[in-house]
Amino acid sequence: MMSTHNVLPPRRRRRTQLACNPCRARKTGCDGRRPVCTLCSMKAMGDQCAYQERPSSSKTLTLSDVNNRLQSLEVKVRGDPHLRRNVGDTPLASGSSTVIPVLMEQSASHQSHDAAEETVYGPSSNISFLQEVIQLQDPEMDTTQSAQSSACPNERTMPDLLGFTEVQSPSLAHDVDLVSLPDRQLADTLFRCFWDFIHPVFPILHRPSIATMYGHLWEQSMPLTYRYKQTNDDVVFHAILNMVLALGCQRSDQIPSAQRNQFSDSFYRRSYRLVSIETLDFSSLQIVQLLLLRAIYLHYTTYADRCWNMVGVALRVAQGLGLHLEQTASSKNQLKREMRRRVWHNCVALDRYLPYYP
C-alpha cells in the first residue's frame, strides 16, 4: 500500500489577472495567453480574442488628503473679503464646510421690504441666484430693495404702489370714490351681514383687527374723501373692506333684490381698481385674503371661470409666501402663525370645494 506521505496535493489552476473578452462573456477559464488564448485558439475564435486593457489606477484619496484639501479651501475663503461677509468669522469645523449651507439659507427665503412679508424662493430660483451673484460682487449693495423705493416702504403713495402708472392714469390715486364709504347705517348693515353669513363658513379675516380698523375710519376728524395719500396697508385694507361690503350686500335683506347685484358689483369694481392682479408687484398675507374674498364673491355670480382663476392666483401667492410650509411661521407670533394656517386652510378648502359645486 502506498504511503500517504508520498501523495501530492492537486495542482491548482493558475488564475490569470486579465481574461479575454470572449472568455469573460462565457465565464470560462482563460489562461491569458497573448495574442490569442488557448480556448479561443481551440475554438477558432482568434479574430475575436481581445483583451480589455486595465485602466491606469488613479491615486486613491485618503481621509488626511481630503482634510488637507478642505483646510486649504477654508483658508482661501477666509482670505476673500467678499466671501468672508457671507461665511462669517467663526472657525469652521474640521471635515465640514459651511459655505454652501450659508448660501442655501440665504437663497431659501427673501425678505420683501415693500410688503413686509417673507417671500419664499427655492435654492434653484433665478432670483435667488442673481441676488447671490450681486451680493458677492458688491456686498454693500442691497439687492432686496429697489433704488427708487424710499427708506420707508409704507410712505409710498398709490400711483406707484401697485404699478398703476404703467396701465392706469395717475389720477386714479385721487379718485375719491375708491376710498369713500356709504352712509354709516348701510355700511354697518353690510359689515354685519358679512360676519353673520360669510365669516362662519370661510374664516379668512381676523374679525377683531378688521373691526378695529373699520371703526377708526369713522372716528377720524378729517373726511376720508380728502385723504389722498395712501400707504400699502391702507390700499389693501380698503380693497378688502370693499369686498366685505360686496359680500355683505349679496346677503343683505335690506337692499332690494333688483339692486343687490348692482350695489355689490360697484364695491367689487372699487376693490379691483385699488388692487389689480395684473399689476400686482408685491405679496402679503392680506393680498391672499383679498383674492380669496374675491373668489367667494365671484362664486355667487355668473363668472365661474374668473372665480376658478382667482383661487389659482391666491394659491400661487400663498405658496410664494410659504403658507404651506409650517417651518416658515415658527418665528412669528401666535396671531400671525394662526392666521397663516387659517388662510392656507381656506385656500385648500376653496380649491377642493369649487370644482364640485355647480
TrEMBL record:
Start and end residues of each Zn(2)-C6 fungal-type domain: 19-51
GO biological-process terms attached to the record: DNA-templated transcription; positive regulation of transcription from RNA polymerase II promoter by galactose
SMART domains: GAL4 (SM00066)
Signal peptide: none
GO molecular function per UniProt: DNA-binding transcription factor activity, RNA polymerase II-specific; RNA polymerase II cis-regulatory region sequence-specific DNA binding; zinc ion binding
Record InterPro entries: Fungal_SecMet_Regulators (IPR051127), XnlR_reg_dom (IPR007219), Zn2-C6_fun-type_DNA-bd_sf (IPR036864), Zn2Cys6_DnaBD (IPR001138)
The keyword Transcription regulation is annotated on this UniProt entry: yes
Key words of the record: DNA-binding, Metal-binding, Nucleus, Transcription, Transcription regulation
Superkingdom of origin: Eukaryota
Pfam families: Fungal_trans, Zn_clus
GO cellular component, one term: nucleus
Entry protein name: Zn(2)-C6 fungal-type domain-containing protein
Biological source species: Fusarium oxysporum f. sp. conglutinans race 2 54008
